[in-house]
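User: My instructor asked us to take a sequence, write out its structure as tokens, and then describe one feature of it. I'm not sure where to start. Here is the sequence I was given:
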Amino acid sequence: MMGGIEYVQLMASLPALGSILAAKRAPINRIRLLARLQMLRPEHRAEIEAAANLLAWPDQAKLTSDADFVSKARKVIETLKSETLRQLVHHQLEQRTVLAALRRRHAGQAAPAASEIWGYGRYVDRIRANWREPGFGLAPSLKWVLPVKEKLDKSDAPGLERILLEAVWRHADGLVGAHYFDFEAVALYVLRWDLLDRWTRYDAEAATARFGALIADALNATPATVKTNADLMRAVA
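Assistant: Let's start with the prediction itself. The structure tokens for your sequence are:
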């Protein structure tokens, strides 16, 4: 837990986010939120930006290979002093690994070779071993896997993105209870604010374009991406 009086003041100044499903708009706009985040200590701002770099979406500069990305991910996570932030990054990278596998299989590709470094986290070997199983054998623990597969099969980009956003939101919500007025509370607020803002400003046409780009990435077996200079608010997937 990393805190101080400035973080008590910062968290007290931020409006409650409420439920992502009930929200019509974010309770605070980006400009005002960024202004209040100036209270972050430099080292904490650097941690959020490091996580944001790692979690940038695939419209940014690409690494040369999946292996390069996995190597970078491990190094970055090791530098994060906040266990909560490490958990957030770890969770999202694993989610993206499962999504990448679903896209690759949907595109007609075979399971990754045993020697191929293509994903991050604990599910890599299990996915490879259960490639033909609809949920890769993960459905009992990852309730969103089969619904995402269904949306992918139907080319339902808005539905797919909603499921993924909700899954990340629920995971973040599960971590909030242990943090109230510390750096982790701020990081969790920023993460959930970005999810809520993205959903309330959702553009189905843009989502469909992203969906097509993701399928193209799967066909080309391109890696996940890293942003060179991440915006502080790009800390989510």
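For the description part of your assignment, you could build on this observation: The chain has one domain: 5-220. Try explaining in your own words what that tells you about the chain.
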